[in-house]
Amino acid sequence: MVGCLVGGWFGDKYGRIKTIALGAAWAVLGASLQTSAMNSNWMIVARLVNGWGTGILNAIVPVWATETAEHTSRGQFIAIEFSLNIFGVVVAYWLEYGCSFYMDGKSSFVWRFPIAFQIVPLLFLFAIVWMFPESPRWLTKVGREEEARYVLGRLRGETGEDLGKAEAEFQDIRNICELERKTASRQSYIAMLFGLGSGKLHTGRRVQLVIWLQIMQEWIGIAGVTIYAPTIFRTAGIANKDVAWISGLNTITYMFSTLICVFTLDRIGRRWTLYWGSVVQGLSLLFAGILSHLGQQHPLGSPMAKSLSDGAVAMIFLFTATFGATWLTVPWLYPAEIFPLEVRAKGNAWGVVGWSMGNGWLTLLCPVMFKALNEKTYYVFAAANLITLPMVWALYPESNQRTLEEMDLLFAADSPWNWDAERNFKILKEQNPELVQAAQRGHSVLDPETGLPRRGSVARGMSLDANALNHRRVGDAEDVYEEKQTFKHG
């Protein structure tokens, strides 16, 4: 949690690439300290250091990814990132599983080597990240516009059908920077949390949305399934000797399921991805609880008990696969999409804070729940999935196929309800056509005489207040009317 807040502040101030490098270097230090730990106090301090590095990376990597991806494929870009992330989880699990057989598990190599292994990809990341392009949005924010325009040109292309895309996006970024500086006056973490000085940007509302989305990501059951998979499988009637490899097989299923999100997230959107995920996850956990309960009513080892326990395990596999295809990616993507450019890294850090709260909460609570409720714990998680349906429907506007610059328009409504946000967004989009060039189909940013991209100045008169714009237009119309009457009488 501390690491992500540091990463968000550092990322907004010094850039995305330097922050990724800092996180990787810090995590290497933490992993080295863990590997060399000689007592429990040493290990606790080492875990804290490593956690800070992980928090920095969690806060900044999704932000860099969303800011460099095109808005039409942003979800797919992040989904691929998480497929690779879970591949790392699979490697780590099976590496630990394989090492557990070394010298019958009595050597410190059993835990030192798996911890040390993470240093290799971290060093690789630190070495290659300097070759990555800096976020063009951060470059524009800090006034390095020529670099930003060059990076956008390389990312989007400058020839053929791509001609003009980079320029349109660049103008949108410049405009939104100007608008955000006029609208918001305070950018500290405390100001963001309570929405102090954010005006029509409503930063406080966005912070609450991402925190609770991440908390619910853990409460829908994945924290329990990931951390207490062996306990869950034992509850379902699986023998102790089979629990470890079945848990490992579940992680492989988890990894492959993330590929579904790669092909669906930008097609059906964030909201529908969460909808179908919650429904299938809730039902699978409900049936897992029922089958586990029924299995315990029969003699251990009987054919009926085995069939019921197999059914419960299948439901857990279905839950994990569905989570990988839905709720794994969206709660990490959404925070990196919806915040204003001025505080985007800090905003995403608030999402990581929510994840840390939910994960820590469930890590401490799951042993108590399983001890007190046994298989009925599944019903609690199933109910949490049910709760997310009205929550997402009412409070979370769709971010799919919208540019990052359009998010300020999407959250400009004073009402927290999704339908009001969409209605206000439509009005503001019509009133601020210069702000959303990159998202408008068929909108030309080419000079009709030269056929080359036009380099415009920052648009003027932009506002996130639909009523203010309407009043201004009425005033303009009255001024015109008075001028006409004066001319007529003259």
CATH 2nd-level architecture:
Up-down Bundle
SS-based structural class?
A: mainly alpha
- Radius of gyration, in Å, reads 26 Å
- What is the ordering of alpha helices and beta strands? HHHHHHHHHHHHHHHHHHHH
CATH topology: Growth Hormone, Chain: A
Summarize the structure.
The protein is built from 20 helices and no strands.
Protein architecture, described:
With 490 residues, this protein is an all-alpha fold. The protein has one domain (2-132, 184-395): Growth Hormone, Chain: A (Up-down Bundle), CATH 1.20.1250. It is 74% helix and 0% strand. Mean pLDDT is 88; it is low at 441-450 and 479-490.
What topology does this entry show?
Blueprint: H1 2-14, H2 16-35, H3 40-68, H4 74-99, H5 109-117, H6 119-128, H7 136-141, H8 145-156, H9 165-183, H10 189-194, H11 203-227, H12 229-235, H13 240-295, H14 303-325, H15 330-338, H16 344-373, H17 377-395, H18 407-410, H19 418-431, H20 466-489
Helix pairs in contact: 1-2, 1-3, 1-16, 2-3, 2-5, 2-6, 3-15, 3-16, 4-5, 4-13, 8-9, 11-15, 11-16, 11-17, 12-13, 13-14, 13-17, 15-16
